[in-house]
Design a protein that fits this description.
- With 452 residues, this protein is of the alpha+beta class.
- The chain is built from 17 helices and 15 strands.
- The strands form five sheets. Strands 4-3-5-14-8 form a five-stranded mixed beta sheet. A three-stranded antiparallel beta sheet has the order 12-9-13.
- Helix 7 packs parallel to helix 9 and helix 16 packs antiparallel against helix 17.
- The chain is globular and about 70 Å long.
């Protein structure tokens, strides 16, 4: 994982696949890569044949580059057809516009977050291929979080990994203090106020970075980025599902039960090394990459870390959760070798050869079940965390949509900055609305404040 700042991270992963020629006279050999479908091919009617000998260019980061090499070693007859380029995927949308103007240069396969895929899916960019003809219904049904790859009914990417939010907690401290892990946000608030009174200095969360918007507001079905189609979006920070979060956070901030620092700020990390973090709502990857690698690194204690499903609001019929990260693979709509490109992304996302030992939680459920072995016996955890992570992945809420405007950056500019100036979350909701609306409009959205 690479942290871009105290409030951002990046990490995801790799691997590859290839294919046999689709020409009538070509025969598939034993070295042909296969997909996750039982029949060995996920291609369905409507897939374009293209040129099975054409070279494809794959854009990855340094973390994923070895996966491409792994694929080339596994399928050497396909190795020469794959050109690897290490790029900063944040530049992907701008590069696509440039390539559209020059008529050349497009990569065939790109590793990127679904929100970046959303940015290149508008008419101006028009980059992604609809993968529907290449992915069987059976395979699609075995993905978690795949809604983030569906735009106007088209499957424009395949999820590589998930970063579903959960509730991490210090089990030894919870037992010592006699506390029960909260199942609702109302219980979370009540426990936080109790901790502030009985054990001042301990915290149950952090609100100092832009991921608080995903953790708290995304967990409340707050309409900040609800797509109603590719050209219309619902934004309403005055919605009760938003204001209840603001009210909860203001009470916890005032009591000093949640920290105004971000989880990666040195002052918050010190709370971890001082064993002052009682609970922390955060992504699934925090167990290995934050608690183990940072908070507990200096003083590791076996069985210290517990994990629970994200809380739900008592009035809600179901649990909602968003994510802090998780990426995908997308394919260029005019790739000259669609079979190789699509077989590649299918292998990357579904093959146990790669995903079973991947660094983070795989989006493909059978691969996630195999990945379970990487954490089930880790002494860090008070118990096997996988069942909770798996259940929590099913709570990812599709109406927390992937949109072309940047909600997290707006939240940092308005809410995080306002909190540092001593303002309340509630007082910042209207300025947040006023910042989000023009951002969405600039990306071509019609903004509404209630469902039509």
């Amino acid at each position: 994982m690479t942290l871009l700042s105290s409030t951002r991270w990046r990490f995801h992963f790799l691997a590859l696949i290839s294919l046999c020629a689709v020409l009538v006279l070509a025969a598939c050999g034993d070295n042909t890569p296969t997909t996750a479908s039982s029949g060995g091919s996920a291609t369905t009617a409507g897939a374009a044949a293209g040129d099975p000998n054409a070279t494809i260019t794959v854009w990855v980061d340094d973390t994923r580059k070895p996966a491409i090499t792994q694929f080339q070693q596994k399928f050497p007859d396909q190795a020469s057809k794959i050109k690897i380029e290490v790029v900063d995927r944040a530049a992907f949308p701008g590069k696509v516009l440039l390539f559209n103007n020059t008529g050349k240069g497009w990569p065939d396969v790109v590793f990127a977050e679904p929100n970046i895929v959303a940015q290149v899916a508008d008419q101006a960019h028009n980059y992604p291929m609809d993968l529907t003809p290449y992915v069987s219904a059976d395979i699609k049904s075995k993905f978690a979080g795949l809604d983030d790859c569906v735009f106007d009914g088209k499957l424009l990417c395949l999820r590589n990994d998930l970063a579903q939010n959960v509730l991490w907690y210090n089990k030894k401290l919870m037992d010592q203090f006699g506390y029960t892990v909260p199942k609702t946000w109302e219980d979370y608030l009540a426990l936080g106020l109790k901790v502030a009174q009985e054990h001042p200095g301990y915290v149950i969360g952090a609100v100092g970075d832009n991921q608080a918007v995903n953790m708290y507001f995304g967990g409340s079905n707050c309409p900040l980025q609800r797509s109603l189609g590719n050209s219309q979006v619902l934004i309403n920070t005055a919605d009760p599902n938003c204001t209840r979060v603001a009210d909860m956070l203001d009470k916890l901030i005032a009591a000093k039960a949640v920290s105004n620092f971000g989880p990666f700020d040195p002052d918050f990390a010190k709370l971890g090394t001082d064993n002052k973090i009682l609970m922390l709502p955060a992504a699934s990857w925090y167990g290995q990459y934050v608690f183990k690698a940072t908070y507990y690194k200096a003083n590791p204690t076996d069985g210290q870390l517990g994990v629970a499903e994200p809380p739900k609001w008592a009035a809600d019929s179901k649990t909602y959760t968003a994510a802090q990260g998780g990426s995908a693979w997308t394919v260029f709509r005019n790739t000259k070798n669609p079979k190789l490109a699509t077989d590649l992304v299918l292998w990357l996302t579904t093959s146990n050869d790669y995903q079973a030992t991947a660094p983070t939680y795989p989006a493909y459920i059978p691969a996630a079940d195999a990945w379970h072995a990487t954490i089930q016996n880790d002494k860090l955890y008070a118990f096997d965390p996988y069942p909770v992570l798996k259940t929590s992945a099913s709570y990812l809420y599709p109406e927390w949509s992937q949109v072309r405007y940047d909600v997290a950056t707006s939240y940092a500019k308005i809410v995080n900055a306002g909190l540092k100036d001593g303002k309340t979350v509630a007082s910042l909701m209207d300025p947040f609305q006023k910042d989000l609306v023009p951002l969405a409009q600039a990306q071509g959205y019609e903004v509404v404040t209630k469902t039509p």
